[in-house]
Design brief:
alpha/beta, Rossmann fold, 42% helix
Length: 298
């Protein structure tokens, strides 16, 4: 058995032959969904290091590095939302028929939404953790887009100077030592920031397209966890607006839930991993119960 907090390596080959680095821990008994984690901008697999061990106690938990992050090779093509979602689909294809619960934080919430739409029959539920959402009007304002571009340029410069990691050291100090070292080494490099810029372009394009499209109800369980606190980059007013959008997102499912992580800002998986794990557990239990009911003799 691997002593790594995230389990053992699970190689993934995309449809166009690129390799992605994934890790898997725990087992999903028959009828139990496999849980897949998708991080936000520039977040490598180690970001989920406080949630995965908890989830692995009752289901198979899988984390991976998107192309150009962590130990996954860069992609030579633009990082469109469709391409990122297709890479996630390649990972799902290596894990069997499912069912799957997809968990996405921040911008990763968009990726899992796209991936779920492409493979609805294999999805047992979606958990969005403080996700980027097109229902939040402020993120489309010119000043906000300017802020995003300035932050990207500043992060790239600080990465080249070797200073970026220092700004975020307090955020990931809760991780186990092995994952602290991995996160420190992988998340703040110039290459990671280059990938972040490529992903940001894809996210902005996707958000603009989604904003003009009608909201589509979903027929699978959908839980949205919002941070309860304002923090760096998110004022109290923006927090309230984002959480209202999250509440509307959850209402698109008849099995929708909106949960507030009262002690967290944006980085809920690091500050309240127990809240994330508990919501995954509830979704897994509901899926198992529904599966058992479907096969119960009339």
């Amino acid at each position: 058995m691997s002593g790594h907090p995230l389990g053992t390596v699970h190689p993934v080959r995309t449809r166009d032959g690129r390799s992605l680095h994934a890790m898997t821990r725990g087992e999903s008994p028959p009828g139990t969904p496999v849980v897949i984690f998708e991080g936000g901008l520039a977040a490598p697999r180690s970001y989920w290091g406080l949630v995965v061990p908890q989830v692995a106690e009752f289901a198979r938990a899988v984390v991976y590095d998107r192309a150009g992050l962590g130990q996954s090779k860069p992609d030579s093509l633009p990082r469109t939302m469709a391409r990122m979602a297709d890479d996630l689909g390649s990972l799902l294809d290596t894990l069997g028929p499912g069912p799957f619960i997809l968990v996405g934080h921040s911008a990763g919430g968009l990726i899992v939404r796209f991936a779920a739409a492409d493979r609805r029959e294999r999805i047992a539920g979606l958990l969005l953790v403080d996700p980027s959402d097109e229902g939040c009007d402020t993120v489309f304002k010119p000043w906000f887009r300017l802020f995003e571009r300035v932050a990207q340029h500043a992060s790239s410069l600080l990465a080249r100077l070797g200073l970026l990691e220092r700004l975020y050291r307090g955020q990931f100090k809760q991780l186990p030592p092995a994952l602290q070292a991995e996160f420190s080494a992988e998340a703040f490099t110039p290459a990671a920031m280059e990938t972040r810029g490529a992903e940001l372009a894809g996210f902005v394009t996707a958000m603009n397209a989604l904003r003009s499209a009608p909201a589509v109800p979903v027929d699978y369980p959908l839980t949205v966890i919002s941070g309860g606190l304002a923090d760096a980059g998110m004022s109290a007013a923006l927090r309230a607006e984002a959480n209202a959008a999250h509440a509307r997102r959850a209402q698109l499912s008849r099995a929708g839930r909106h949960v507030i992580a009262e002690r967290s800002g944006h980085f809920v998986p690091l500050t309240e991993p127990d809240v994330v794990a508990a919501e995954i557990r509830a979704m897994v239990d509901a899926a198992v119960s529904e599966s058992a009911e479907a096969f119960r003799p009339a």
